[in-house]
Fold this sequence. Notes:
It contains five helices and two strands, in the order αβαααβα. The protein is mainly alpha-helical. A two-stranded antiparallel sheet has the order 1-2. The protein starts with a helix and ends with a helix.
Amino acid sequence: xxxxxxxxxxxxxxxxxxxxxxxINELFLSPGLSAIxxxxxxxxxxxxxxxxxxxxxxxxxxxxxxxxxxxKASNLT
Length: 77
């Protein structure tokens, strides 16, 4: 499992506009990074990631939501 610093680094790379959230558009603009996130969170697509882990239903993933997704996926393996 990645460290919190690794996750923050990955999150920051995807958060292109640096608003503290990863939008579906940012996920699609970085297919290589999206593949890494899919493997870390055990999801098959950006849409699935947002649908499963966007707890506040704002259409994007915050760092805390992302971290929870990775933690949940780690517990499944």
